[in-house]
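[audit] Reproducing an earlier prediction to check determinism. Same input, same settings, fresh worker. If the tokens differ from the archived copy the diff job will pick it up downstream; this log only records the rerun itself.
[audit] input (182 residues):
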Amino acid sequence: MRGDAPVAPATAGSGSARGGEGRADLAVNATLQRATPPLQVEGIALALTLPNLRDPADSPLQRASFATARIGDITAANADIGFRIRGFREVHIEGAQVDLLGGRVRAEPFALRIAPAGLEPLATTVRLDQIALGAVIGLLPESVSAATGSVSGAVGVQWSREQSLTIGRGSLTLTPNESSQM
């Protein structure tokens, strides 16, 4: 896949691989930094097992995670992604979750399909649990200066090269028994 800015080599990392008789096992532990936009991901871990290299669709559930990721002023932590390789150009995300904006964000299953021109459009539902309104303020226009409380709910999310990230229909509810203010 192509990006608009080069990715710097891992500043720290280790890995191991073994294979034989059409099988591959890979383990990676690394840190990634990118200058534009400023991105730093630490504690990247990937455990990948491909028992049949000729037909990766037979692969078991795989795992990837990271300890922290920072892009600008936003920090995500404790990410966990479960996925299955469905072919040479398709990965099915069984579930993904991360601590973000003072709460937990979970993505429902979706497929990543890679065409010769790059990643195909994707869509999923994102479930938000106890997202802190105060943490969201930095993402809003300056007309909102303070907020307290938290929200939970679900929203549709789509991504494509042409449209970038689009937030679709959904609903958010203020956390019961908690005072909220904007």
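[audit] rerun output stored. Observation attached for the diff report: The CA atoms of residues 77 and 162 lie 29 Å apart.
[audit] end
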